[in-house]
């Protein structure tokens, strides 16, 4: 269980462990090719109200809709017990994309 009393780096490890355990299911149900954590938790700057930033890449042949994307974001938020901000790797803008890719920790 993830608690608010955990330090950000402890929470980061808990998030990684939980996502790793779900990796096969995420691939099967949502065609997730890659999943990584970036943002305030990776930089050690997370505050109690911080969300968790996840970078996602889907299998190239998979075409998802907005409803599926929202369902996945909600599923991950419930699973991890924190609001998740899901970002699609293929939609990254060049400047912010470089920053994200330089700090992302892949699961």
Describe the secondary-structure layout.
Layout lengths: L7 H23 L1 E7 L1 H4 L8 E7 L7 H15 L3 E5 L5 H10 L1 E2 L1
Parallel strand pairs: 2-3
Antiparallel strand pairs: 1-2, 1-4
Tell me what you see in this structure.
It is a single chain. The chain has 107 residues and is α+β, with helices and mostly antiparallel strands. The protein has one domain (8-106): Beta Polymerase, domain 2, CATH 3.30.460. It has helices at residues 8-30, 40-43, 66-80, 94-103, and strands at 32-38, 52-58, 84-88, 105-106. The protein has a four-stranded mixed sheet, sandwiched between helices. Helix 3 links the parallel strand 2 and strand 3 (84-88). Helix 1 runs antiparallel to helix 3 (66-80). The relative contact order is 0.20. The mean pLDDT is 92. Residues 23-106 form the Polymerase nucleotidyl transferase domain. Pfam families: NTP_transf_2 (PF01909). Belongs to the MntA antitoxin family.
Question: Which descriptors would you attach to this protein?
Answer:
single chain; 107 residues; alpha+beta; Beta Polymerase, domain 2; four-stranded mixed β-sheet; 4 helices; 20% strand; globular
How would a textbook summarize the main sheet? 4 strands, mixed
Strand order of the largest sheet: 3-2-1-4
Tell me what portion of residues adopts beta-strand conformation: 15-25%
Radius of gyration: 13 Å
**For the residues shown, what is the average pLDDT?**
92
CATH A-level architecture? 2-Layer Sandwich
CATH C-level label? Alpha Beta
Secondary structure class reads alpha+beta
Keywords: ATP-binding, Magnesium, Metal-binding, Nucleotide-binding, Nucleotidyltransferase, Toxin-antitoxin system, Transferase
Cofactor: Mg(2+)
InterPro entries: NT_sf, Polymerase_NTP_transf_dom, Type-VII_TA_antitoxin
Pfam families: NTP_transf_2
